[in-house]
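User: Need the bound-state model for magnesium ion:
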Amino acid sequence: MEAVITLLPGDGIGPDVTAGARSVLSAVADRQGHRFEFHEALIGGAAIDAVGDPLPAATVERCEAADAVFLGAVGGPKWSDPNAKIRPEQGLLKLRSVLGVYANIRPVRIYPELVGASPLKPEILDGVDMLVVRELTGGIYFGKKTRTATSASDLCEYTVAEIERIVRVAARLAGARRGRLCSVDKANVLETSRLWRDVTDRLMASEFPDVAIETLLVDAAAMHLLSRPSDFDVIVTENMFGDILTDEASMLAGSLGMLPSASLGDGAAGLYEPIHGSAPDIAGMGIANPCAAVASAAMMLRHSLGLESEAQAVEQAIADAIAGGARTADIVADGDTQVSTEAMTAEIIRCLN
Ligand code: IPM
Ligand code: MG
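Assistant: Bound-state model below.
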């Protein structure tokens, strides 16, 4: 098949891990006879530096014209002045909104050889296999913001339609897995959460009677994620709760550098990004873990390009590279040899069948 892929390397370790994802996608194309055409575009701090805008119009055009978009990471201390009007993160939020990718799917998978990299006890990690479905284009991250000398506010709003469409995505995924959906909210305090719960209960009863629904308050969910993570199948939650809970969930896998994501809308096109940030402390050192980026590329093959067997081959290659002992700095343990971003990528490509 032929596909046009836009790459947005962004800031910090973004370019390092984007190079890893691109190499793996090229290797897949070579071996399976596909033709992927890559175009790079600016986003985030790199775009602010180059043209004064974290999401230039040329980038939006490139993304809208592509079959899929890959993003490395945005942000960094250089652009973090709290009084700055223009910030790298605005570029990413606007891109998600412009592309209409409201459903952010974040799988949490445990590689058996990395159980020791997690701060949790091995018996707690046994059987962990969950998907977190994070609402990505609404809620408090997109509400009106105000700031005066003495106060500030961020508005959190959700509509019935926004809740219905994300719960449908999550329920369909749960139906194709173990048939269990956990909706996370803060309905004891927040009005948006009470709406979220009403809409979810009604929709699940009428459209998904075969999917078991559980509801958890977000503070309790944060605890249950660590005390009984293997009980979860699919979790659905609003934008901010999903952002926070998935960083927490990455510790089940041992490193933020292992978790991929796919952001989808109603069409086939999607935005694929590792859930980690730009890690400015290790930017340019060539030691970042490319696994989350490569696993995000695998999700691109699956969800936007319809190449399921290629996606599985890439996921298997990551697992085999890890089983073979390849370890970047974030997952290295006593006795392991540490490898660079490039060497880890090369090892994944070597394991690709
Ligand atoms: C993520 C990140 C972003 C978010 C930031 C960089 C804006 O933390 O993708 O989880 O909050 O969504
Ligand atoms: Mg985050």
